[in-house]
Specification:
Blueprint lengths: L2 E9 L15 E10 L5 E8 L10 H6 L13 H12 L4 E4 L3 H12 L11 E4 H9 L8 H7 L11 H12 L4 H5 L3 E2 L12 E4 L4 E4 L6 H6 L1 H4 L12 E8 L3 E8 L3 E11 L5 E9 L2 H18 L1
Parallel strand pairs: 1-4, 4-5
Antiparallel strand pairs: 1-2, 2-3, 5-6, 7-8, 8-12, 9-10, 10-11, 11-12
Length: 310
């Protein structure tokens, strides 16, 4: 397997959000990556500083975190040049691993800003090692810093943090504590590009839940009127499960429901409505088996929300 463990460093407008380029809130200034074999042994490395073209001075926060200074960019190449070489280095059928969900989103956003073709597969599945560490070692919800996990696993601190290549190396070292099954059964879906129509909608079955990503809608109301979006199918047996508690809103973009599968019991549905850059909305729906205690919690949530609205 061609694992590419990727990490990026980026800069933002040093003069505040009022003056930022809305199409590029974060400009990539360094790409670091390692290629590993199936045993997570590092076979090759990629590291290059990227010369900023939008935010040519470092934001104070960036200067505090990354190990770069303005003088380091003097002889650096532009993003299109560096990315083209990086993509060639990735080879055929790369499997991307990251620490957190942001790197691939910002990488594609930089591609779009520079008018470059997006070479990533669609849908783009990748492996968020930060999330997988939580699934395997913690409570599935907590997200730890890279430094915290390196220390907790007693991995020697031989290279500095907040350097793109160093952080990619540390992520690869953490992957050695995970089995193939633990990694490959917990893929993440990238949301930078979402389905354009019904044929492109994404369905994924995981060990403990299912995920669905919808086509776009002009409004949240239209999304919640779509029978496909609000359907509740058991992730275990793939049978339609009647709803015992209808979909209700909690907050402006989250919806919950409870359904019942004759074979697998109670199921909790959750829909998150996300807004795309063009102003349209798409739905991310998850369905998973839950205990009777969780059912009571969801019912109380609905009652509390109804009382608040009243």
């Amino acid at each position: 397997m061609n694992f590419i463990v990727l990490d990026l460093e980026w800069n933002q407008c040093p003069y505040g959000k009022t003056y930022e380029e809305k199409l590029l809130p974060f400009e990539i200034i360094e790409i670091g990556a390692v290629r590993t074999d199936e045993s997570r042994e590092i076979l090759d490395r990629f590291s290059e500083i990227v010369k900023p073209q939008v935010y040519t001075s470092l934001h104070y926060h960036t200067s505090e975190i990354v190990n770069l200074r303005n003088i380091d960019f003097k002889d650096a190449r532009s993003f299109p040049e560096v990315f083209s070489d990086f993509w060639k280095w990735c080879g055929s059928d790369p499997i991307f691993c990251t620490w957190g969900p942001s790197d691939l989103i910002e990488l594609q956003r930089n591609l779009t800003y520079h008018g470059m073709d997006n070479p990533f597969a669609f849908p783009l599945f990748y492996y968020d090692i930060q999330k997988i560490f939580s699934i395997v070692f913690e409570d599935r919800k907590t997200r730890r810093s890279l430094r915290y996990v390196v220390d907790s696993l007693e991995i020697p601190r031989e290279i500095p943090f907040h350097d793109a290549l160093s952080d990619a190396v540390y992520t690869a070292k953490i992957m050695k504590y995970l089995t193939d099954e633990q990694i490959l059964s917990n893929s993440s879906v990238d949301y930078f590009r979402t389905p354009r129509n019904r044929c492109e909608e994404i369905y994924v079955r995981y060990l403990t839940y299912s995920k669905f990503v919808s086509k776009p809608y002009d409004s949240k109301l239209l999304a919640m009127k779509d029978k496909v979006v609000v359907s509740t199918v058991c992730p275990e047996c793939q049978k339609n499960s009647p709803r015992k508690l209808q979909w209700f809103s909690h907050g402006s973009r989250n919806y919950y429901c409870i359904s019942w599968c004759e074979e697998h019991g109670y199921l909790k549905g959750k829909i998150r409505l996300r807004r795309r850059s063009d102003g349209k909305y798409y739905a991310v729906k998850t369905i998973k088996p839950v205990s009777s205690d969780e059912v009571l919690r969801i019912k109380e949530l609905k009652e509390a929300h109804g009382a608040k609205r009243s």
